[in-house]
Amino acid sequence: MRSIYIGLETRFAVRMAFACLWIAVSGCAGYQLGNQSLYRNDVRTVYVPVIRNDSFREDLGVRLTEAVQKAIEQRTPFKVTGDPTADSVLTCRVIGDSKQVLTETNTDEPRAIDNAIAIQASWINRQGSVLMENRILPAGQLAFYFRQSSRMVPEAGQTSATAFQEVIDDLANQIVNQMQVRW
């Protein structure tokens, strides 16, 4: 008689475990794990043309294009493509850059310099809908404005090239952050 109860208890425990597992799995079926849930699922490819540069530093557009493409490939599920007929197009334009001396020595040599780049960016799908979402963007606007600066200390061995590269990398990350879907 005792072995019948043990058999019933074991079968009941197995059935309860299976039922709990089924409820847990089916309850989470709509959720996505990882960074896939942060980005749009209707976009798979992104075309990033060479960024137009309206500043006097001629290499900023090319360097920023490379940084944006690399950030998209590394941080998003999207594939960067060279095909203009991709699912979406991310167009950017450098609208200005500046270099300002913050402090200087007694002999007028710069001790700290602020480097800044301002860009305009828009992400549009094939149908012409704006894909970047931001609550600050006024109605009717298609482009976002980003500005990033970096402090450079020449006495510490920093150069304008390294300071601007830091700004470029930060701008690329800001752009990719705006590609995330808002909660």
UniProtKB/TrEMBL annotation:
PROSITE patterns: PROKAR_LIPOPROTEIN. One of its GO terms (cellular component) is outer membrane. GO terms for biological process: Gram-negative-bacterium-type cell outer membrane assembly. Keywords: Membrane, Transmembrane, Transmembrane helix. The keyword Membrane applies. The keyword Transmembrane applies. Pfam families: LptE (PF04390). The chain crosses the membrane at residues 12-34. InterPro entries: LPS_assembly_LptE. This is Lipopolysaccharide-assembly. It comes from Rosistilla carotiformis.
